[in-house]
């Protein structure tokens, strides 16, 4: 395998464009891409024709506009290149079909906008994210909007948020005499996932229908020994990973590191960062490819945030920064951050944004699956705080206290090399408990769920930071002594938002009460986290930055709640079905066998001891009746939920249905530990977590 040769071989990338397009068309296309604009129709025909020719040479017969509706998944509608000509067919892709496609919007969630707007939507090419060939089809990344202009997807607002940030960041840079064409946001999403064997998966209704186990007694050996993290990768998994890498590389995805994660059967893939929209497309493709390649290996990739109770869940670390087209990373502190006013101003803007809009940021990662991590017994907590590390923390402290900062030597006990820069990587939050940590030259937002489309979090981040930049630029433009004025703004804002900074253990029991004292939000579940999105201030910031209209912002909040309600509903129904049809009858069957044992024993001799059977019969009968009662309660409560109202139903799901489900589970999990393995209807945690060789 020749890696450089295979890298991006399925992508219509810059070098292929250069090779296949007439030079004026190539130049016009690059200019469009760099400006982030829509392609001029006059050159679309030539681009489409070259793209089709290339795709056909790669074995493609179809093309699809590939988009990201609000379901959180990707959607595609395949058309063949075929066009009749006389009694023959030719392969064609017109400029128009490259740029624009029609798609019926009525079957995708639109959060009520459907009722008021036309059901028709169209897809439009995003030329800044390259097209690629996969499984005989040319994939054209597109946005998805209604005919009246409402965005119906996650890409369009992401692009808008990038534009907003670009505009305001350039104003800030200009204050310091830095002129550039463009400021782009960059993202490197680290993806966690579980790999299990297909055989076990197929025997678990909960995994198949919900992506997570709804029942399961803890395995005797979970992750206590901490020997899985960075441990030797199992042969079957290594083969899977090799195939995965090869396929990802062929799509131009820079899959860089792979390793075992904390939990048994859990792994991680980290790509090299790139521009936000390309990184999002890459991550969507990565998740899809993980599932597909796993299937080829008779394995299943679980992307759910919490497939197994008592075992670490999966998240996605969203590494985020901003850079100019001239290569300046706005979050690079340089050698002397204490004297780097631009850096400090950018830092203050991020801190201000995160504090002002902590609720929005929290809501941007809220989902039924992620609720099992955030706000449960797992990091990061549901409380948003910013981690700066020792050095940066000390600089901020000195600014807030109005003291002079004395630069520390390279951290003692760090990597022990005095001449290493002041920000060695490992000085940054080694324990990884912070939801939002400064890590050298970027922020790492760690609250994202593993199945999430990372657009949501990035739309939010870009928008709120653009807003902070705008406020700073408004205040500072025209000031004579920029250094002095900027430092005054930095000091004022850091003081004002100091409460959001927390440089200690985010899992610690002290943090929750401390955060409450500081007035920080702590919304533990989706039903409680999402409603902040309806607050005026939180709608306004998106409207002001041109990212959402008010209707779009509200529709998206509705959809988040609607998704949540639908998921919990499916989980509850699956649980009821599993308990009633499989588990309760199985336990009853085991009890019957125990009873038969007792009578046959007694038929031999009435002095034979049968304490074991008696104890089990009694305890299991009690539990099985308890399960029946708990399932009835769940059924009745679920029937009483008014599914049409997302506000009341989401509250009911969080505060009635989930506790009901907990009650059913607690009983069933105890029964699992008492029931003979021969009778238990499902593979256990042990079977699943240790099922791959
Ligand atoms: P670690 O988290 O183990 O210290 P790295 O610092 O190498 O690892 O980076 C982790 C992730 O952050 C990678 O996906 C990397 O591409 C990404 N990353 C690095 N720099 C940036 C940046 N400027 N913007 C966005 N992501 C970045
Ligand atoms: Mg990380």
Mean pLDDT: 91
Biggest sheet overview: 9 strands, mixed
Question: What is the distance, rounded to the nearest whole angstrom, between the alpha carbons of the first and last residues?
Answer: 26 Å
Question: Per the principal axes of the C-alpha atoms, what is the gross shape?
Answer: globular
Description:
It is a single chain. With 693 residues, this protein is α+β, with helices and mostly antiparallel strands. Helices cover 48% and strands 14% of the residues. The protein is built from 23 helices and 17 strands. The strands form three sheets. Strands 9, 10, 11, 12, 13, 14, 15, 16 and 17 form a nine-stranded mixed β-sheet that branches. Strands 1, 2, 5, 6, 7 and 8 form a six-stranded mixed β-sheet that branches. Helix 12 packs across helix 15 and helix 20 packs antiparallel against helix 21. The longest helix has 55 residues. The site of adenosine-5'-diphosphate (ADP) has 16 residues, from strand 9, strand 11 and strand 14.
Which structural traits does this protein have?
single chain, 693 residues, six-stranded mixed sheet, binds adenosine-5'-diphosphate, binds magnesium ion
Summarize this entry quickly.
By secondary structure, the protein is an alpha+beta fold. The chain has helices spanning 3-6, 14-20, 23-35, 41-57, 95-99, 113-116, 155-175, 198-202, 205-210, 235-250, 276-296, 341-356, 358-364, 389-401, 455-476, 482-496, 511-517, 526-529, 536-544, 550-604, 611-639, 646-674, 685-689, and strands at 62-67, 75-80, 82-85, 88-91, 100-104, 120-125, 132-134, 137-146, 183-197, 255-260, 266-271, 274-275, 299-302, 315-324, 386-387, 436-438, 443-449. The structure holds adenosine-5'-diphosphate and magnesium ion (MG).
